[in-house]
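Q: Structure for this?
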Amino acid sequence: MTVATSPAFRTIHPRVRKPRPALMRWYRRNERVVLSVAGVVLFFVVWEIGSAAGFVDKFFFSSPSAIATAGASEVTKARFWDDVRITALELVVGTGASVVLAVPLGIFIGWYRRLSLTFDPWLNFFNALPRVALVPLVVLWFGLDWNMKAVVVFLGGFFAIILPTVEGVRTVERHLLDVSRSFRASSRLIFTSLVIPGTLPFIVSGLRIAVGRVLAGVVIGEFYAQTQGIGVMIYKAEASLQSDRMLFGVLIFTVLGIVLYESVGAAERYFQRWRPVREDEA
Amino acid sequence: MLGVRNATLALSRVNERLFFGVIGFVGVLVVWETTAQLGLYRKSLLSTPSAIWRAALTDFANGSMAPHITTSLSEFAAGFAIAMAVGIPLGLLIGSFRRVDYLFNGLLAGLNATPNVALIPLIILVAGIGYEAKVVVVFLSAFFSVVVTTFTGVSTTAARHLDITRSFGGSRWLAFRTVVLPSTFPFILSGTRIGLGRALVGVVSAEIISANQGLGFYISLYGTFLDTARVMLGIIIFGVFGVVIGEGLRILERRFEVWRPDLHR
């Protein structure tokens, strides 16, 4: 780099920027949303065109318009709403029971260090175990009715929630506990002002894991038992080669999954907003 | 003096963890065995540790277990290897270009939120009930979590580091190699761990629903025979497998934890 070649002083004029057209500005601001919607739309368009032109096999993958038609005729049937009711019942009872049991139990176990060490191997074992492997066993215990699926859902949610909860209680900051004890805070106060807020983010991230497991649980339970529910509708539609009806059923679970993940994500952001933003995240 | 005390304290802590762990593990087994022997519930519901042990000894000795395990393992390994081989480069590619990232974001999030087991009937329809179908199920189960975590990792690379690289005249390729790749690596590892868990669920589900070999088939077959000891044996093997791969990945992750941002998933 030689100084001589470059002029010693150079005035830099600010570039006058022409204002962009309004539409362009709107696009710039919402590029993320616009493009991701475009991506989804493009996916369906390619699928539709592909099945019409023949490079997507209609027999297997149907087409968005056929799925929409199948869905429209499906929602007029009483049987469909029975299926929806049953699946919803299984999900709500199973998930509800897993939250109601796992959270207090996790806090209890986590509070006593030795107790948590004692339970550690089994909790880790059941958490690592693909819980669908338990389905045949659950059938032995509960038969094929809706309550068996609720139990499968429960097992999916329970271990996903209890493990982070134990972890959360266990990792409540030592020095905060010491300070509270030094100032003779009652255990009740320690519990409500330290343990609960410290554990909440962990419980929520457990819930996030639970969402996927709970949905997989209900689907597998219904595939296995084949009595009633959206899963059964999917399975029977496949058996009678109605891929449009089958994919309509899958789509219901997709929408449900997105809604549940988004709500848990919103809860997660809500409970983490007090956290200082770390430098590498900024 | 203090150092010695700390060292012994640390040792007792380690031992305590082991001590109570063993107590919990053995305690449950003992309670399980005695309550079953006392006849507090029917043995067909839960079997007993001793019966499971006998079942394990006979099935491993006469070689009837080995083909199930190798079938499940090879389905799992093939599907997962393909998911990694396709998912990681695709995730890196998508994440490297902002607009491509936006374009695929919604779609991949949706596919990731779909319980992939719901696609098993479709896969059976397309690929039959043989080996290939299970490989596809495993692949699909693991693929989306690998792709999604990889491109999340790429797109959360610290912008400042990229700016610095560019300020010093580094090429896009240099930035990719020295900034993006190392900071994405932990994400790839967590994606792998999540994917492994899901792949395991995938292989079990596919085998339980329709198969003629494999551990999942073994479980559901003996479930219909009410042979609870063998059902339990299959479950335990899956559990041990899950623990081993989970812990292995966790050890790897801890190795890189120093600069790993929190990713609760």
